[in-house]
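Cross-check.
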Amino acid sequence: MGIMAFLIFGGVFLAVVVVLVLILIAMYNKLVRLRVDCDNGWSQIDVQLKRRYDLIPNLVETVKGYASHEKETLDAVISARAKAVQTHDASDQGAKAMGQAEGELTQALGRLMMVAEAYPDLKANQNFMQLQEELTSTENKIGFARQHYNDVVARYETSRQSVPTNIIAGMFSFKEREYFEIEEPEARNAPTVSF
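Predicted model, tokenized:
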């Protein structure tokens, strides 16, 4: 009877250990999936930001042809773009720094569009209209990508901070992810590009 009790106890103990290991593996895999979702969401933002950066010089050149005396506004857009690109290219910058740089760029683009409003010939220019349409589309895609990224970061952070998953997150160094937010209230709105 003693050997039988020992075998039963050993079998139950082994079953509990196996179940615990499987639960730990499931929690770890969930964190990995969520981290990959965050990386994917960030890469979607990255694609749209690069598209935006590529559109801006063409837009500035088109406006410059009609409103070259608006040098201060044009320089502000170019400077904001350069800062955003530099922040974007710096691998150690987080989502918060990117959000701040993108907010400044959005503000500068808004001012550029207000300048363009004063030039009817510019508003009628086919190249400007096409660039305006592409910029509007890109701004919308950035907004959707940012929303998706923030959603997956929220799921990741919820899982990373919840008990008992937080133990696994701590053991395997699952780092905190920042939301991609725009800090300045006036920059929260996309630039108005419709005429």
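The chain has a mean pLDDT of 89. The chain is about 80% helix and 0% strand. Passed to J.P. for a second look.
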